[in-house]
Amino acid sequence: MGTMQLETVPEPKYWHLKTVLSEALDSEFSVGEILPNERELAARFGVARATLRQALEQLELEGRLQRRRGVGTTVAPPRVGVDVGSESGPHAWPGAPGDAWQPEDHESAPAPAAVARLLGTGRDEVHAVRRSRTTGGQQVASEVLYVPATLVPPVAEGDGAQHGSARARAVLRELHRLELGGQERTVELGSARADDARRLDRLPGAPVLVVTTRYFADGRTAAVSVATYRADTCRLSFGDADAVSLMAS
Questions:
Q1: What element of type H or E holds 170?
Q2: Largest CB tally within 10 Å, which of 73, 133, 214, 224?
Q3: Contact assessment for residue 107 and residue 176, using Cβ atoms and an 8 Å cutoff
């Protein structure tokens, strides 16, 4: 098989178009303004619509554009920094003072297969606590926190816990009774599922950043958090100790 020097590989046409479009966004459009439709843009720049779509998708991934249901493609607002790590510190349970996540709902159900493997419990029933994260009036992340029902007692229906958000807070309170032994976090790029896309005001399949956190107590995994962030709002930065700090912006 022959080889090809990277220097000889031509720049993809959509990539050049992305640069041209980016300059146009800076000089001709304002934040929130709706772009012309694909047919008009393709005609203006003399490219096929498939090439245009690739360029628009790249600009969306980079946070320059937003595609919204019933609105179209608009110029994205400036980025606002938000700490994606634990605001309460590396040795605090979810829901501790300083945690910016808001509990929304709770249900008891069998753990998803991937979560069950991390918990080491099989497909046993878990508490699934759904929380949301908002900044600048816009929801930037959605999370489901899974806690084994064997670890936290069933949540009573009475005593003000009839609503999903109240039951979610009750699970968090019980979790705080345990001594946290540490956390382990992984990050991967994914695609928004229908429910996450709806919550994050994205289109299904839009790029998202999935942050999975394992919380340890008594030598075992006591809880697993799966948080989905808008990929166009997130960046990674590295601290002095080479620790990874996750930032949404």
A1: helix 164-175
A2: 224
A3: no
